[in-house]
Design brief:
Two copies of one chain form a homodimer.
Chain A (H helix, E strand, L loop, with lengths): L1 E6 L5 H10 L4 E6 L11 H17 L4 E4 L2 H15 L4 E2 L2 H12 L6 E5 L1 H6 L1 H9 L7 E5 L3 H6 L6 H17 L3 E5 L8 H7 L3 E5 H19 L8 E4 L9 H7 L3
Parallel strand pairs in A: 1-2, 1-3, 2-9, 3-4, 5-6, 5-7, 7-8
Chain lengths: ~260, ~260
């Protein structure tokens, strides 16, 4: 059982980590498209083109299952990827994220806030999905683009006053209006700053979709894995521009093994 | 007289603005490689490849002169671009920036601080160039990567407390050690936050290389332009991913006309 995981860069490592915890016996290829990072500031047409190239690489490597561990690609290119890879099953991160919000919000009618990149917000993938499933009259759904958070995380400022101030700025309108709510980390980088988001939104529940993605994949693969006697192997790491990796990436790759 | 100006994105507009002021009668093509922005976090090999594609586009458009209005491309790919475009003259931004620092530092022996992207700093183009020309024993040269400044400028936070705090963080070691010095804005985005850098470095002279680049090009073209009776025309704007432009770009394009 070989699972291909791809992201525009290194953010998808948070999803890979959750997958390895849930499915330790699978074999993984992690593809980070670092030559083209970030996707979050590109147009939809570019994101589709780049995502299809990543998907094709994983298909050529004969993976059994693909996880699009990038919110931007999941928001803008999931249909195209599924068509191109058919019959290989493909999971994105948006649908599990929406399910995770629904699980938290059952009967509470708390406001929902999606924090994501500019391209994901522009796609309205989360907003439209949630508004179809919730009673939007009673339970408002907001989407906030946070384009500075990925650069701050990649700079390693994950507990820096500038990070805290930036998050405070992005969430202030919602925090001022609502003392409780559900905030979804709609970018695979954001689990690395989950604590900072939690402290900026006291009284709110912060949902990390990486775990939700892992549960979705486990559900899809349960049967195959029960029949598999393979031992867990290490991850194969592939980057389209390996020389451009931030210094912190080795550490993140090691964390994914824990 | 047709001048081609290219940058990874919109930062080169600061150079274009200075060029139009100095050479109002030339015709311009501005090429922003927004499909691949930012160059500053990519490897040298990727930057060379992308820069050559931009240069080739301008060559095909029959420009008479090319200005590489991107510090990362000037630092990592200028030789390759000059070879590919020969005999079309090519100016980068690094050499004029170094000349501007030398003009300021004549006989002062003040410390020099280059603020730039991660890729420009990694290339050491400014540091090596300056250390050859200065007595590095007496006049220290520092290079500081500031990867958060471009995202902050593109978010429009050009006078925001988070911007001021981020700049303060980057320059603190130098400001604490030296009460005077010369800081070069080694990225074409940074002229938009020149005032913020000046207030973070009281007592320091902040040098904007966009003007220096314009003077270099004027020097090279003086003769041709004196003979030209053409009237100034508007700029032709070309972006490789036009749908991904930040909302602020229209305003910046208009500013370049003033």
């Amino acid at each position: 059982m070989k699972i291909g995981v791809f992201d525009s860069g290194i953010g998808g490592i948070t999803v890979l980590t959750a997958l390895r915890k849930a499915l330790p016996h699978a074999e993984y290829i992690y593809l980070g498209d670092t030559a083209n990072v970030p996707y979050g500031t590109k147009s939809a047409a570019q994101v589709v083109k780049l995502s299809l190239a990543c998907a094709q690489y994983l298909k050529d490597r004969k993976v059994d299952h693909v996880v699009v561990a990038c919110n931007t690609a999941s928001s803008l290119a999931l249909n195209e990827i599924r068509q191109a890879l058919h019959p290989i099953p493909v999971d994105g991160v948006v649908e599990p994220g929406i399910q995770a919000v629904l699980a938290e919000s059952a009967q509470t009618r708390l406001p929902v806030l999606i924090l994501a990149t500019r391209a994901t917000v522009r796609s309205q993938a989360y907003g439209n999905g949630l508004r179809m499933l919730l009673d939007a009259q009673l339970q408002p759904v907001f989407e906030q683009a946070c384009p500075l958070l990925v650069p701050l995380i990649e700079e390693g400022w994950t507990d820096h006053p500038v990070l805290h101030q930036t998050i405070a700025e992005y969430v202030r309108p919602y925090r001022d209006q609502f003392s409780q709510g559900i905030a979804l980390l709609g970018c695979t980088h954001y689990p690395w700053i989950q604590k900072a988001v939690e402290s900026a939104l006291p009284g709110w529940k912060v949902v990390n979709s990486a775990q939700a993605v892992a549960q979705t994949v486990v559900g899809a693969l349960k049967k195959e894995l029960a029949e598999s006697a393979e031992k867990g192997r290490s991850v194969e790491w592939v980057f389209t521009d390996p020389d451009a990796l931030p210094a912190s990436v080795r550490e993140l790759m090691e964390i994914s093994h824990e």
